Amino acid sequence: MRALVLKDLRVLRPWWWLIVPAHLLFGANGIVAPQLFFAMNVALAWTYTILLLIVDWTQEADRYVASLPVSRRDMVQARYVGALGAALGGTVLYALYGRVLMAFATERLLACWPGTPGWESVEGLLTFFMAVWLVSMAYLPFYFRSGLGKGSWLFVAILAPVIVVGAVLVRWLSLPGPPGGVSGVLGTAGTVVVALALAATLGWLSLRLSVRFFDRRDL
Asked: Are 138 and 163 in contact (CB under 8 A)?
């Protein structure tokens, strides 16, 4: 599996120099409102996972790798390692980018950001990571079952509404809430533990589904 992860990094190497500038360019469009900035950065972080899938799909890399002495389980696990890296990397960029933009923001833009920005707290960063992870874990079983094209359409048709509801629940779990809410009862440390346990459980279930689907798929 380690060789497969390194292969993915080499595939992305020609585009490494574009990732941060592209993130800065597109993410800046969301600075007018916290919710938009959050959503656009989540979409950008998820794009890093999708980019690898698109490259492999267009080059029929899965078919080639499956012909080598590599198990399909390892192929799936490598994709999940990449998705984890994309979620973590996207969270770091979200935090750094937010700080830079706020440092140079005008008074008019600052007025649009009441309260503490999401990247200024553990709960806010956890919310971002969980949102990216939730979308990735929901999407990958569709990809491994039906491929990029059909899998993407099925994902949008079936699970997109569920993802929206799930993202709202994750946000409620991760952000400080009123007394009696999950965050208010558990505190920061407890909320982090619960959220990461949820992330691990979702990842395990998603991985099992993906391995099962990919083992049965003709390449």
From this structure: yes
